[in-house]
Every structure is written in structure tokens, then in C-alpha cells.
Amino acid sequence: MSNLTRFFLPLTVIFSTLCCCGKDNGGGSQEPENTAPTAITLSQTSFVDPAEGGSHEVTITAPFRPKVEIPSAAASWITLKDGTWDKVKYTITVTLTVAANATYETREAELSVTATGASAVTLKVSQAAKEKPVEPQPGEESDVLARAQELGLGWNMGNHMDAINNGVSNETCWGNPKATQATFTGVKAAGFTSVRIPVTWMGHIGAAPDYKIEDAWMNRVAEIVGYAENAGLNVILNTHHDEDHGDNHWQHLKNAVDNAATNEEIKKEIAAVWTQIANKFKDKGDFLMLESFNELIYGTEWYATSNVEKKCGVINEWNQVFVDAVRATGGNNATRWLGVPGYAASPNFLKYLTIPDDPAKKTMLAFHCYDPYDYTIGDKQNPDWGHTGTSHKNGENEIKSLFSSIYTTYVAKGIPIYMGEFGCSLRDKNNTKAWAYYLYYLEYVVKAAKTYHIPAFLWDNGAKGAGKECHAYIDHGTGKYVGNSSEPVNAMVKAWNNESASYTLDSIYANAPSF
């Protein structure tokens, strides 16, 4: 072989290799270049989500970059996160997120996937409905339901005996007049069957170890309870602003949680105070109910996010001390109804509230409801509420779901519970829209409470006018309506008392204000 031949032979082989081989896959074998597909294919052509919603990745193969179109009717509950188009593989992966379904209806949507040079394909999305609250059936009978009917619709004499200034509680220091017999006669005439009398004892409690309550204050509380008894009202009596909300009050939950020795000292004072209160009222009939506390929180922490079980555990200890102290006094206290709230008296923390060991088995759980806060007492004071308004359009379902949950968790299992406070800051009657939604909210909430057998106590702090924390309905001195408050009171009384088969939550919903 000549030198020239030896020179050209390798070049020929190399040239032949370059001409004959495709893409090397790295293992010596070859594969042809990708060719564009002629149709659109999806890694998933449909999916079904639960009411809670979900997220899904869908890989799309297409001849050109595809477009996913969400129908306008589904744009409120399906969102799309685009991916990166792979020009070599002709694929793209997108993420579809389905929001929680707050309605009681299933929903479906067909998304269109299109691309140049191919026929459109459909991606189907289905979602289950939110589970509809279970409503109690007519004719149900139990001691729990009987107790709910007994307490019925109640009224709070708020910012009155619970008012406090410079560490001393005082009946008139927050602007309300002294209560009279006429106060409670007026409350009864308005249609209420029960009253809650919040009392702050701070400033009238002596030093350890006796913690003697001042006679004058105890006797004034007893006099007011007597007014309610004379009017034929049930009464709930408690310790109210003795709790700490960032102040140095004696029911200092934060100090008790943080220091076991402090907790023991506070429990001694709780026992002493409640022993004295219980002894004062031991001969009163069953119309009187005693309630341990109001809204115990850790410092200024209205929503506990850490060490929740420990914080709630101390409240459970305190409630047990309360029950033990009252029962030990004997007389009618051995069997009278008692009430105990949990952390912040919030329904969000009811699951941490332990039913105290009670030999009489007559302890009720308690919670407060000012939902939604931005409508009832918050700084924003939204102008309307509910499905026909512009804010809180799912408001009715939220209230109904809350009360339904409380019913199934407690009432249906024979555990009595009551709503010790609810309310909505007064609206301006001259604002037709705001007033209509205000009446609607109160009527709906009370009807929901009645439907689910939950006694409901309206918060009345005597503050007149409109705006944040103005809840004046019955004058605390005369028992007369404040301004035009007869209209909301009548709406609530109707909601509790009207048991016509045609008057339901659904009928109230159907007649919501419309502007």
C-alpha cells in the first residue's frame, strides 16, 4: 500500500461515518432526530378534586407551544402556572391549582388546549361540593336541647358591673347608669329569656390567704341578680375583667403558664373567690347559673400559636378549681348549671377545652362569636355581609358551618354549649343599605343558633351611636329601647321564637338585602 493510500483511507472511513450515523445516545447506538408531533397529547386528560381543592402538573406534547384556556366561569377557582417550552422534546409542563369549594354544589370545567397545526383537546376538571352542614331534625328531644330552649335568647349587661378603672371595678365608670328593676323588666318585655351579668371583682378582693370580697360590692351584685329574678329571667353570673389582657390583673394566665408556683397561688384565689360567690347565692333557684371566666388569653395573645396545649391546659385546671369550689358549698350549688369557656372563649380553641369533672354532670361549655370580625367589631367595619353584598360573600355558609360543627361535636353528643356573647356594632339607620345588612346579619346568626340548639346572648355595652364597639339596645338604667334598637331586637326575637316550617335559614337567605 502506497503512502498516499495510507493517508486517504482513514479520511474515507471518517467521511463515511459522518454521513451514515445519526445522533449518538452516548452508548454507541444511534437514534434519529426528534420530529414534531402532529397532535396534542396530555399526561392527564381529567382529574377530580375534593372540596378542599388541590394542585396538578399536566405535561402537554404538541407541534408548537400550546395554549391552555380556562373558561371565564371557572377563572375564580382554577388558576394556571405556565411552564417552560422544550423545543427539542415539544413538551411543556403546566400546574393547575383548584381552590377550595365553599359552596354545597359540585362544579366542573372544560379547559381547551390548542396549538398551531393540531386539533384542540379538552382537559376536564371536576370538584366535589363542600359537605353540607347537618341540620337537627324536628322532634329531637334531650336534656341538652331542653336546656338550650330554657336559656333561649339572652342579653348581656356589658360594660356595667364589669367596668373597671385604676384597678377597681365600678358600676358607672364606663358611662352606664346604675341598673334598676326597670332595666330587667324592660329586657324581659323585649323578648329576652335570660341575662348574662358580667362582673369584675378586682379592687374588692382582700389580701391572701382569705381573699375576702368586700360586702358592699357582693351585696350590690346580689341586688342586681334579684332584679333579674323578679323579672322572671335566667341569669349567668361570672368573673369578667379580672382576667389579664396585658394588665396586671389577678387572673394572669401568662404568669401562671410561665411559672408553676404562680399558677398554684392564682388557683387558691380562684377557689377563695368562687367559694364566697357560691355561698352568697347557694339558696338561689335554678334560674341562676355561674360561669367561671370570660376571655382568658396569654398576655395580649388573642390567637395562641405556640404552646397551645400548655396554655389551654392551665385554663382547664382553673375551670376544674371553679367547679370544685362551687360544688363544695352545697345547697342548690350542688346541682345548679355551671359554665366554662376555653381560650379567649373562641370557637377556634374549643377542641382544647376539657369538660371538668363534675359530680352533678351539669357543666356547659361556652364560646363567643363575633364573626367575621371585620364586619362586626373590627376597624374596617365593612358595609355589608353575605352573598348579596360586596364583602364576606360566603358569610352565611361560614356561620352555618361553624354552628353545624358545634352541634355535631357537642350538642348531638349530649354536651350542652352556649354562645355567651355575639353581636354587631350598630349601623347608621339613615344609611339604608348598611342598616338592612345589619338587621340581616343579626337575624341570620340568631336563627342559625336556634336551628343548632345553641343559646345565644347578645352583647349590649350601652355604647350609643354607630361605629366600632357600639352595642346599645336596652338602656341599662331604664330598660327602654335605645334609639331605634327595637327593630334589630325584634328581628332577633323573631329568629329565635318563630318555629314556622316556612321560616328557615334558607328562607332568610333567599330574602337577603339586594341593592
Q: Care to describe what's here?
A:
By secondary structure, the chain is an alpha/beta fold. The protein contains 12 helices and 20 strands. The protein has 2 domains: 41-127, Immunoglobulins (Immunoglobulin-like, Sandwich); 143-510, Alpha-Beta Barrel (TIM Barrel). It has helices at 3-20, 143-151, 181-190, 215-230, 253-258, 260-280, 308-328, 373-376, 395-409, 432-451, 486-497, 505-510, and strands at 23-24, 30-31, 41-42, 46-49, 54-61, 67-69, 78-81, 91-98, 107-115, 118-127, 153-157, 164-165, 168-169, 194-197, 234-238, 288-291, 338-341, 363-369, 417-422, 456-460. The strands form 5 sheets. The protein has an 8-stranded parallel β-barrel, surrounded by 4 helices. Helix 9 (395-409) packs parallel to helix 10 (432-451) and helix 10 runs parallel beside helix 11. The longest helix is centred in the middle third of the chain and has 21 residues, at 260-280. It is elongated and about 95 Å long. It starts with a helix and ends in a 5-residue tail after the last helix. Residues 1-32 have low confidence and may be disordered.
